Amino acid sequence: MQIIKTLIDMNLPEKLEALKLVADDLPVPIIVQSVLDHSVVYMNKVGLGILGVDLKEMQAINPREYVTRYFNIDDDKDYAEKINKRLQEMSENTTSFFQQVKSKDGTWELYASNTKVFMKNERGDVTHLVTTASPLDPEHHITIKINRLMDDVRFLRNNALVFGKLSVREVEVLKLMALGLSSSEIAEQLFIALATVETHRRNIRKKLSLKNNYDAVKFAHAFNLL
Asked: Is 56 helix (H, G, I), strand (E, B) or coil?
């Protein structure tokens, strides 16, 4: 208990120095960020090596540029909301999430990241967060599934508005299109005229900017029509 209390009572430079004593010996990136502007206060050598920068350069990067340069922006919105909710609840629990990081060679790699409170001020307000990021084997079947799921979530998010423009009947037609039914088969199943089906198909292709049937299948899967 005395050790924990001592760490809490440390000011930021002292706590960072304590972290640096072990951070470079650990096999994962470690990042400390300010809650005020999300700037990077500290990153260990493993993390800097992955991104191909030194600490001074990292500390000088505008926080917004830091996100757009190294992370998938859509993913950042999701886990940023989770972290902010934790802060509002003043929770000491760890927030876990997956994120794609662009390494120095330009490739995207998937990480399982964990963020929690690193430091508070004298009023008890959270001032800094610490994050660890564990790389996932790109060839592992779990990583492949996670990447696929994240792609589906992005597609869903990015196309929710256009999908919402479809009428109830157009959604029904889209489902049958994705199943590979012809216009005459759709007309027979829905008890509508063939010309009406063709009109629905044209409207669906226009509203969703479909180029082929694969696009129809992708929408159907994303919005749970299949």
From this structure: helix
